[in-house]
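re: ur question from yesterday

yeah so i grabbed the chain u mentioned. its 468 aa long if i counted rite. heres the sequnce exactly as i have it in my notes:
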Amino acid sequence: MADALSLPMAEIAVLLGEGKLKARALAEEAIANHERFGAKLMAYSQWAPEHARKCADAADAAFAVGSRAGSLQGIPTSIKDIFAVAGFRTYAGSPKRLPPKFEIDGPVVANLRRQLATVMGKTHMVEFAFGGTGQNAHYGSPHNPWAATAHRSPGGSSSGAGVSLCEGSALLAFGSDTAASVRLPAAMTGNAGLKFTKDRWSSEGIVPLSFTFDTPGILARSMADAGFSFAALDPYLGDGFAFLRRVPTGINGIRIGIADPWFWDGCENGISEVVRSAIDSLARAGAAVKEKPLPEARDAFAVFLEGGVSGIELRAFLDRELPDWLATIDPVNAPALKNAENLSAREYLTRRLRLLEAAKSAAARFDDVDVIATPTVMVTPHVLTEEVGPEKFWARNRNLVHNLVPANFLRLCAATLPVGLDRLGMPVGLQFIAKGGDDERLVAIACAAERILGTPHEILGAPPMCKG
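ran it thru and got these structure tokens back, copy pasting raw so excuse formatting
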């Protein structure tokens, strides 16, 4: 079947199960797409076509005897190099291979493997996931496929994840989100992304950045595909198919709060207008829309600007597990990790307590709304340059993650879906933030919103660098 990868994931799964499509053929199509676009986009740190073929053959063999291992059987998938994947080396964006203990499947990857998904390889990332620009001094940075002439940021730290979806080498991409790192690259590459409530999905088997905030997440070409993957993988759903049947066909009666100006005032290149237009469309379709401040977001971001807690937690991990890696840390990150030496236990705990108090207050903001809507990213992906000092790097990073950090620091869950292009032709995302633990409701609402607004392909078309 030609161009099978252009179909919705749910339809692909049906065709695979009925024998009308072979997992090997799907893998070969994904491999061919990477051969067309991969050299210029650089999504993967470890591209593994032979491994993918073996995975696909195993899926086909199971289908042939009527065995269904899971909904993702035969689905081409990319995995961020922060995840341990048996048979693959783990670098976490660093220049040296991590010890063998970081190459043992955790629960998320083990679940994916049990379902006989086709693993295409491991994607590039920011070193130890510490930063959102997509920059990596050791390996270079993937190209945002929406920028045909300039080398613009694909977002980070899961920098290759969204790019793998755009080039058509994967239908599902795994990332991690500590302060932005799933939603940011998803939004900046025109894909959908899900950041789950902390500890809903296990972070075991993921190289830690911050044990306080790290959570696995997924990126997909559409929210429908993300919802299908969530139903297949979530450990709390039970019957994933029942969840998918419960997703509303419309948005009527859904209560959407519009976040306060703090989330909007820094938007550039028409981003706010694109997002507000999408919210207006949802209101016309029956959503109940009202203004809904989330002042705790300012409190959370203030802690982030003071240095947050991720730097000290990463430094503690490196000191304990990988002390030799400190000597080769990306120069833009070295000052922050050096400064972590001077953070007192009292200040670290004070920041943690401030965030706990803010999170408790923020939870009450969702008593009369289902989600709070914001622009996902306020700024257009910037042009990457070879030489960027720490000061400029962190100024960019602050702008990129401004609207994303609060969901992590306030223990909320969040989704992003593309809703248009800005004045420079780069994707714009609409973020839905929901109360912690409301992951199922969040995914259902995001899927319903996409049915009203249109899929990314319908809204955006194909990225310029992935045409022809």
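noticed a couple things. DSSP finds 17 helices and eleven strands in the chain. also The CA atoms of residues 3 and 212 lie 42 Å apart.
anyway ttyl
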